[in-house]
Automatic annotation (TrEMBL):
It comes from Myxococcus xanthus (strain DK1622). This is Tetratricopeptide repeat protein. Keywords: Membrane, TPR repeat, Transmembrane, Transmembrane helix. Residues 506-526 are annotated as: Disordered. Signal peptide: none annotated.
């Protein structure tokens, strides 16, 4: 009996125990399934939020960046330790801070960057943002060392290349910066941020057609990219082109109201000021520039517009205003070179020369790397600077000094070679050094009519008339007037020039040629 009872008890205990164990295992399995399903769901949701944030951020407008941050905030509710999401948030807030000047974005950018670093994110957003923060703190050399270390480890992406471009720009190596901007824009052409940055760098150098081309690539990806649209209009306005279109862009952007960040308001204000200057309204330009500077006190395009307006008014504060613009963006040739021309036009030759001297002091020590790997001084190849300096000195009646500057522009053999040949040739012509002027002008105003510079053909015509070669002179005048007509010179101005040449021929005893000139040149006035 006792033995059988124990066996029954053991059988009952074993059955109960087994059932309990099965239940425990089932619960554990169910919990595991729930856990893995939940984790999979969270992972899927975080990936969706991250993908949506990247897509929104790539459109580049403030509203897009805000939408991207909304996606990331939702992601952080699911997983606050998503390291690449923290890096992307740092990148977006850095753009809002440095490009759009959004209040409070700097603190958020640093917070997200610190979190991304703690979580050991290896994304380009983290490293690119850190380099930009170093540059913003004025630590250009440290930023270059940081980037060099990353590059030595094989890191290579558009954000690091953009940071490298900005570091080179800060150092004054504009050719190197230009190449890096171009590489970044090419590598990430779907993101208008990079092509817009390239366009701004070109505009800072006064290379307006190239800047417009870069901005066009940005708007081809996002036609509504506000910064690219306003900057395109500004570049056109600097060239005196497409004013009506620029005004339409300005009106459209201003209508966006609350959507505009301080950075966009300041850029739009600079455009408004330049359009007012183009209309001959310097007081309106001053008002618009001052309003822009309330949004961003160091917006250099607005500072530049303000200085230009003061120069047009012949205000004694113009020189100080240009110097203030230069102080905010030391490595923007536009501010020095065009500023010097504006001061010269206003009659402040000393101020113009001082601004050019400041340019030389800034860029004189800069060494660049030539295509063959050698080092060369930046100014040695800077024909734009020597041309600008020569022009200012010539207008100040310092012709010998101007010739020295023009010779340096010729020696640089840059893209402005033809302009340098014309500038020196025209100055020698004014000094009646016909033998010295002739080969220079012939190079840019060939007898075949293949030249493109109307002013060079006019100068060559003057030289030929002075030497009694009236028939050849008439031919060159015709080529020059034909190019002026193609460039949009009004018919009345062309007719005045035609008549002046006819009178000069008659005064030189060339009555029959004067009659032939009037008949032949009539086609230019049709």
């Amino acid at each position: 009996m006792g033995t059988e009872g124990r066996k029954d008890w053991q059988r009952r205990e074993s059955l109960t125990s087994a059932l309990v164990q099965v239940g425990v295992v089932a619960v554990l399995l169910a919990g595991a399934v729930v856990f893995f399903v939940h984790r999979g769901t969270v992972r899927k949701q975080t990936e969706e939020h991250l993908r949506a944030a990247r897509t929104a951020a790539m459109r580049g407008n403030p509203a897009d960046l805000a939408r991207a941050m909304t996606e990331l905030d939702a992601l952080f509710q699911l997983d606050a330790e998503a390291r690449d999401a923290q890096a992307l948030a740092a990148d977006i807030q850095t753009v809002l801070w440095l490009e759009h000047r959004q209040p409070g974005a700097d603190a958020k950018a640093r917070e997200h960057l610190s979190r991304a670093a703690q979580l050991e994110s290896q994304s380009g957003e983290r490293y690119g943002a850190h380099a930009l923060h170093l540059l913003a703190a004025g630590k250009s050399a440290e930023a270059e060392q940081y980037l060099a270390g990353l590059e030595a480890r094989g890191a290579n992406n558009a954000r690091l290349t953009l940071a490298r471009a900005l570091a080179l720009q800060a150092r004054g190596d504009l050719p190197g910066a230009r190449q890096a901007f171009a590489r970044a824009a090419e590598a990430s052409w779907r993101d208008p941020r990079f092509t817009t940055a390239y366009g701004e760098a070109l505009m800072d150098e006064g290379q307006y057609p190239q800047a417009v081309e870069a901005f066009a690539k940005a708007t081809s990806v996002n036609p509504d990219h506000l910064l690219a649209r306003v900057s395109t209009a500004l570049a056109h306005t600097y060239q005196g082109r497409k004013m009506e279109e620029a005004q339409q862009v300005l009106s459209g952007v201003e209508a966006r109201g609350a959507e505009l960040t301080p950075g966009l308001k300041a850029r739009a204000g600079a455009l408004k000021a330049e359009l007012a200057l183009a209309r001959g309204a310097p007081d309106e330009a001053l008002s618009a520039a001052d309003e822009a500077l309330k949004a961003v006190p160091d917006e250099h395009y607005a500072l530049f517009a303000r200085a230009r307006a003061l120069a047009v008014k012949h205000d004694v504060q113009a020189r100080a205003a240009f110097e203030a613009a230069v102080a905010r963006r030391r490595n923007a040739p536009l501010l020095y070179l065009d500023g010097a021309r504006a001061l010269q036009t206003a009659g402040d030759t000393d101020g113009a020369v001082a601004l050019l001297d400041a340019y030389e002091a800034t860029f004189g020590p800069v060494q660049t790397t030539t295509p063959d790997g050698k080092k060369a001084g930046l100014l040695e190849k800077d024909s734009r600077y020597w041309l600008a300096r020569g022009g200012v000195l010539e207008a100040a009646s310092r012709q010998d000094d101007a010739l020295v500057a023009y010779d340096k522009a010729l020696a640089a053999r840059g893209v402005e070679l033809a302009q340098a040949q014309y500038a020196k040739g025209a100055l020698l012509l004014a000094r009646k050094d016909y033998e010295g002027a002739r080969p220079l002008l012939a190079a840019v105003a060939p007898d075949s009519g293949a030249g493109t510079m109307a002013e060079a053909y006019t100068a060559m015509g003057d030289l030929l008339f002075a030497q009694g070669e009236h028939a050849a002179g008439c031919q060159h005048y015709f080529f020059g007037l034909a190019r002026e007509r193609a460039q949009g010179t009004p018919r009345e101005a062309l007719a005045e020039r035609v008549e002046d040449i006819r009178k000069r021929l008659e005064s030189a005893g060339q009555a029959s040629m004067a009659k032939a000139w009037k008949a032949e040149s009539s086609s230019l006035l049709e």
